Amino acid sequence: MTSVEAFPMIVIPSERGILFASAAACGVFQLASAAADATFMSKTFYITTPIYYVNARPHIGHAYTTIACDVIARRQRMLGVDTYFLTGTDEHGQKIERAAQAAGKTPQQLTDEVSAEFRALWDRMGITYDDYIRTTSERHKRGVQALFRKLRDSGYIYKGTYTGQYCVFDELYVDAIGAGAPCPECGRPTETVHEENYFFKLSEFQDKLIHLYTTQPGFIRPETRRNEVLSFVKSGLRDLSISRSTFSWGIPVPDDPKHVIYVWLDALANYITALGWSSNDTTLYDKFWPANVHMIGKEIVRFHCVYWPAFLMAAGLPLPKSIVAHGWLLFEESKMSKSRGNIVRAETILDVLGADALRYFLLREVVFGQDGSFSFDALVQRYNADLANGLGNLASRTLTMITRYFKGEVPYPSASSSLTADDLAVADAARKAVADYGAYFDQFQFSRALESAWTLVATVDKYIVENEPWTLGEKQDEESRSRLATVLYTSAEALRIVVALVHSVIPDSTARIWAQLGLGDVKTFSLSELQWGQLQLGTRLGNVEAVFPRADKSTIERMQKMEEVDRGAAAVSVAAPATPAVGEPVKPVASDGKITIDDFAKVELRVGLVKVAERVPKADKLLRLEVDLGTEVCQILAGIAESYEPEALVGRKVVIVANLAPRKLRGLESNGMIVAASPEGGKAILAGFLEDVPVGTRLK
Ligand SMILES: [Zn+2]
Asked: What is the DSSP letter of 29?
């Protein structure tokens, strides 16, 4: 039995689920180092997210990677580059097989559900992917088998025997000795396996890979990651086991279906199978491969930067131009305990502040490539400072004054001879913003790119304050009118430049401001032509309205509550996965991860009788229960409203964790926890008894 506080302090988006770390390693992208490479220098542009492993539900860490790709893809399209953006889900492997078993589902049912959840989230966030690949799709399976055949036919695959430790969580053979020895990657106990396997001659690629990393410095970014990979490869490469026979949820090895193909060979191939490589129609492959950017989290660098190029070299296929590894998102909410965990769902932020707020925050707050932290406080602070007070305020004051003083038409500035130094400084600042933004962006320095755009916002703000258009607006003399026109034209033009630049980062709100500027659909604007002075005189503004309403203190509370309720819903679950629970905090495992009888005795489980059950207003998942424990009646809030009608629970005997510290959900105190099995993606099922049992009896 597990209770539920099975979430990590630190969450990383990953193809292979969630990993953890305590130290913040970092890598900064250098502006100069990769300036000359070909990542952004092609007529077509192909960018990929890792395909997300369906053993975990989507959370903000996955959203981070996907947003970064979406932002790049949107900008490339605005620049007129023929762009293809791929994402999808990774669905094979022992972990999935076991999780499905524990949930009483087939692996296909489980992966269908979770994959759909990812896709629904991306759709809700307006992610502009062109294709969504699933590794359980026929097109992918066929492509992976073709790749396996190609590697075998080229002499890079042989059959051998492997005995050693295997980490189910990482799906990785590891250098650990002895049954149950902790995995050096994740700390979880490993399993001993003896397998006859197919091996890939990775050792033959050591020199070629070193040559690749040294001659193409932009192949791995940032520099820190490149250096890590380089020293890993220099330390020697062993051949890689690329098949498994101990489980069956995978793609069968061609001509030897007792084996399934190693999940990483399977997963990595998605980048070409999605394009139709080796299929009847290779149009997309011919057009878009090699990829310009594989965006990944730093925990999967080795697979992408060592295995993947080696597979491609062995198959005689071109290599991707750049593999870009971002850092991890760390969650810090001091109010929560370590054991409670700090996973944040993207949905909470979408509900309360919208997708643009999340997109902006992640790219502005986190130095790309380094680890960054997330908190609701920081999110709201950023939102208010940069979006509500910054861009939002600039837009609304500028457009409102044009509406008020010039009947909603962009006014004619005075002749250039009478432009002041102030006016010229704004135009210069705008030119600089355009140049800096593009340069930083192409080096994946999103936070500095945005900083340069907001430097322009600040410049215009100062300009407006100093030139006091509202004072000019009170006067009717010609000179004041002319000056007012110049000030408002200059402000509106700077606003237009900012909006065009940052459209790919905050697409919804900028589209609205663009329309308010009277410029129509921002999607049709060609970013490569952006320059100062394009705002047409006399342009008729659209309806002016606030785009970023200010967020007050209650915003943070609302988001925290939503997360608590969600965790409360998770907290009734007592799933029994055969593998370590996803997201279990990694402690250095001293023993084999077991607890003592004394540890268990601390949990006071008792038989309770439900006296009252009712829904909690505005909380879809919560029921309020009054449960008789024999000696007392306690109030418990349980996230089982989607599984049980309240009426059906009254008079039912249930199992209660009676000594749980009280906590508040939706303003109501919950004293205890109701025990239920919680199948992955399914409805909670309350624990109960076949024989009659007195109320208050302790379970031990
Ligand atoms: Zn591991």
From this structure: -
- What is the radius of gyration, based on Cα positions, of the chain? 29
- Residue 240 zone, left/alpha/beta (φ > 0; ψ -120 to 50; rest): beta
Residue 387 has a CB neighbour count (10 Å cut-off) of 26
Residue type at position 552: D
Residue 416 pLDDT: 56
The helix or strand, by DSSP H or E, that contains position 674, with its residue range, turns out to be strand 673-674
CA of 98 from ligand 1 middle (Å) equals 16
DSSP 249-280: SSPEETTEEEEEE-HHHHHHTHHHHTTTTTSS
| 175/166 Cα distance (integer angstroms) | 9
Question: Around Cβ 129, how many Cβ atoms within 10 Å?
Answer: 21
Least Cα distance to 72 among 370, 275, 373, 322 occurs for 322
Please report where in the chains the tokens 């009788």 appear, as a residue: 609
266: CA distance to ligand 1 center in Å? 19
Q: Please classify residue 614 by burial: count the beta carbons closer than 10 Å to its beta carbon, then call 0-12 exposed, 13-18 middle and 19+ buried.
A: middle
Q: Nearest-5° angle of CA 417, CA 418, CA 420?
A: 115
Q: How far is the CA of 19 from the centre of ligand 1 (A)?
A: 9
What is the distance in angstroms between the CA of the first residue and the CA of the last residue of the chain?
12
Pairing of the two strands 82-90 and 131-134: parallel
Residue 684 CA to ligand 1 centre (angstroms): 29
Contact criterion met (CB below 8 Å) for 386 and 498: no
Would you call 89 helix, strand, or coil by DSSP? Answer: strand
CB 115 within 8 A of CB 71: no
Give yes or no for a contact between 27 and 66, defined as CB atoms under 8 angstroms apart.
Answer: no
Q: What is the mean pLDDT of each run of 10 residues along the chain (700 residues)?
A: 29 35 36 54 94 90 95 97 98 92 94 97 96 98 98 96 84 80 84 89 97 95 95 94 91 96 96 98 98 95 97 98 92 41 81 96 93 90 97 97 96 77 96 97 96 98 97 93 95 98 98 97 94 94 94 90 76 33 30 67 86 84 86 84 84 87 79 83 78 82
369 CA to centre of ligand 1 in angstroms:
23
Give the pLDDT of residue 568: 65
Chain-centroid distance, C-alpha 185: 21
Distance 171 CA to ligand 1 centre (A): 7
Q: In what order do the strands lie in the sheet with 252-253?
A: 243-244, 256-261, 252-253
Q: How many Å apart are CA 289 and CA 291, to the nearest integer?
A: 5
Whether 674 and 636 have beta carbons less than 8 Å apart is answered as: yes
* Residue list, CB under 5 A from ion ligand 1: 167, 169-170, 183, 185-186
How close is the Cα of 170 to the center of ligand 1, in Å?
A: 5
Residue 397 Cα to ligand 1 middle (Å): 55
The predicted structure's pLDDT at residue 162: 81
* Rounded Cα gap, residues 396 and 561, in angstroms: 31
Q: Which residue has the tokens 């960054």?
A: 372
CA of 188 to the centre of ligand 1 (A): 6
Spacing, Cα 578 to ligand 1 middle (Å): 15
Find the helix packing angle between 421-442 and 478-502, rounded to 10°.
Answer: 0
* 447: CB partners within 8 A, 6+ apart: 363, 364, 365, 366, 367, 368
Model confidence pTM above 0.90? no
